[in-house]
Amino acid sequence: MAVFLNRETRVLCQGMTGWAGTYHVARMMEYGTQVVGGVTPGKGGRSHLNLPVYERVADARRETGANASIVFVPPANAAAAMIEAIEAEMPLVVTVTERIPTLDMVRVRSALKGGRTTLVGANSQGILVPGVGKLGVMATGSERPGGVGIISRSASLTSEVVAQVTAAGLGQSTTIGVGGDPIHGIGMRECLELLLEDADTECVVLIGEIGGTEEEEAAEYLAGARTSKPVIALIVGLEAPLDRRMGHAGALALSGKGDAAGKIRALEAAGVRIAPSAHLVGETVRQALAERS
């Protein structure tokens, strides 16, 4: 079965009445995602996109039976929205908002401790299960149902890899954008564990980049894991200069830490097959599955 998102997932949108929420929730509904309502303080009791709008997440969850939320709240108030969902014990929260203040995300991470909520993001493109639903802002059209799980820090590269996997005659089980900010919810390692345990996932692709320790932590897990499923990785940023942020807050390699070469070495040592270039990920996945067969 898919990871995180299935046909029984009932979704709330926090910030649904704004432009971004309106546009993307409409696309999610067109794709088949079961959106059951929205939350916008000060607009409770109204209807938007033919769905009820509530003042508070707890009230919306009680009335609709929602078990997931997607956050389109602007950066200044996004942390408060996530913490409200956590306090309402929402099982899954996906946050698209980027450039949330770092100290705000520290507060969110503290609220998550000991709770029942899994947070994906912030600065995440979301979750996509082809033919079932999408919870986020990713492009659709090239995806197909299949057995390749994808975990990514990069939204644009995710779209490229999805298209390549489909072009190689394969398809995707679940695609997860963990988020590009330095402090976020669930990471590559936790997603990797879930996908390797998923019966519908035959192999996993990691899309990594400079900055942070996501890829090294995934390599550490794989070094001790016993799995027959191939893991393929694309790590970008080999030519990126040190001490300069590239693209978003999490893409920053400091001297001796977080560089692409070090991430590649760690993953190769753990048995991961490295795609030699961004345009060869699909072919690398096809070869890995062919060799496994």
From TrEMBL:
Residues 4-100 form the CoA-binding domain. SMART domains: CoA_binding. PROSITE patterns: SUCCINYL_COA_LIG_2. Gene3D superfamilies: NAD(P)-binding Rossmann-like Domain, Succinyl-CoA synthetase domains. The keyword Cytoplasm does not apply. Pfam families: CoA_binding, Ligase_CoA. This is Succinate--CoA ligase subunit alpha. Its EC number is 6.2.1.5.
